[in-house]
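Long-time lurker. I teach an intro course on protein structure, and each term I like to show students one example going from raw sequence to a predicted 3D structure in token notation. This year I'd like something fresh instead of my usual example. Would anyone be willing to generate the tokens for the chain below so I can use it in lecture? Attribution to the forum is fine with me.
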Amino acid sequence: MEKYNHKYGAEQIQVLEGLEAVRKRPGMYIGSTSVRGLHHLVYEIVDNCVDEALAGYCTEINIIIEKGNIISVEDNGRGIPVEIHPKTGISTAETVYTVLHAGGKFGGDSGYKVSGGLHGVGASVVNALSNWVEVTIQRDGGIYQMAFEKGKTVKKLEKIGESNKTGTKVKFLADDTIFETQNYEYEVLETRFREIAFLTKGLKITLEDQREETPKKVEFCFEGGLKSFVEYLNKNKEKLHSEPIYIEKDGEVPVEIAIQYTTSYSESIYTFVNNINTIEGGTHLEGFKRALTKVFNDYARSHNLIKEKDQNLLGEDIREGLTAVVSVKVKEPQFEGQTKTKLGNSEVTGVVQSMVNEALSTFLEENPAVAKAILEKCVSAARAREAARKARELVRRKSSLETSTLPGKLADCSSKVAEECEVYIVEGDSAGGSAKQGRDRRFQAILPLWGKMLNVEKSRADKIYGNDKLNPVIVAVGAGIGNDFDITKIRYGKVIIMADADVDGAHIRTLMLTFFFRYMRPLIENGNVFLAQPPLFKLSKKGMEDIYCYTDEGLENAFKELEEKGIPRDSLSIQRYKGLGEMNPEQLWETTMNPEKRTLIQVTMDDAIKADEIFTILMGDEVDPRREFIEKNAKFVKNLDI
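-- Reply from a regular --
Happy to contribute to a lecture. Here you go:
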């Protein structure tokens, strides 16, 4: 191998002073510099306030998005210590904001029993990634203030007044040279802070948005804790028992769990460690699932709800229709991976398992009617699972006997490298025909679908196998469904839903996304699902190249640009596309399928709880929540024909 000829000595080794490392590589500390990373700054400051609440000293947190996207976070906790720190020689408050890994969250004699956040780097990272930060502290009878710019101290901590109150107020403006946007999404912050309030019983959190002419404000405080959380998650579902089963136990590892069964066919389990959403689960989830399976099987056998000759109910049978939230507080949490999404502490499994065993067994004995209703659903789920297994085997057997295992209507691509391949799931044979002719056959496959698709929100897995609309999708993607889904076996790196920009197209997109969310969720989590954006309008004029517009706003902008060039709008021919089938193959390629010009929307799993709620509202049995959702959101919808 040829050697790269350059100097390599002491002078080539960079030492980044203070917070320069954070500014140099922000993604290492907050994940990204997109809007997600921007929100992460707010979460880090709020997490510090929540740690004060978990320690028993804070009862209120007030968050304000001020004009200009300035964030203000204030709590009534103890206030950051203001005395000189023995190791740094500067005030403790300044140390917390300028030194990485300086905080009250380390070791057995730390200021907190448990904590979330970035293990003591949160405040300093926010400081490093902000244009400016101002911190006001009330503590020890005084009011203190300090200020920073881009991580550097510009105003040392000084006493500016007297006060008998305690608490910390932080104001900051994110650095516009680091983040792609400074614009916070109110709904995203609202969802996160509602979640924190559920997880921290009795904590009052207010969020106010002052950027608009009419400010928005919301207040959260839930004395019921996780019980209130589960009631919120199930508010649009039909419940098998009216009150959630609530389990709480203090100790070395405090555990709080709420459980409620609904008539739906999917399970929704959310787990948290020190208020951190562990989306990949971990040892606390493992302990919960083991206990759940054991307790229900033991109860079913002892009460003759399943016979001796019958096999035990599987965990998936018992979790059908289950909504549960599991929250543990761990003093020294060990997370797998830098993003802290999976708990690794082995001792937590046994703690959760024994606690659920005892509490749930007692509940079932004391509430036989609830136990019977749940177990009847579990037994029904087991029968459906067996039917699904037979249907699955039939599909596999049928496929193996055919000359080709791929769906007949699939026009596959020539490449077999999944990462470079993409499949368009197209509404209708007409559009499918245009897409087949217009595509790049090397890497683009086309799968036309037609007719009414199955609503999986109202169906069990046994109804999905063999379904003539969904089975071609399952076979084409090639990775199975449900518990059998294996992301490593997908045949296409991009699965693109391409439907008309009208009501029917929106319905088809929602049905397909519901199917992916419920039965191929890793496909969304891995970033493989996209929505195609076909144009709504075509502007044409003799001697002028056609212009395609994808929104009403885009059309108006095109008119203005052409008028500036001396082309009046009344001289233009405007075509409003009602469907994909109206475009010929060349137009479809140029506007919607050409990687160099098309617009694709990636479907993400930023908030599984919110996604679960929306799919339940839109595709579930309850009519009133759906009507309310449509009425509330109709004004925000674009590109929708009525």
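Some talking points for your students: The chain has three domains: 20-220, 226-385, 405-534+602-636. Residues 51 and 115 are 5 Å apart (CA to CA).
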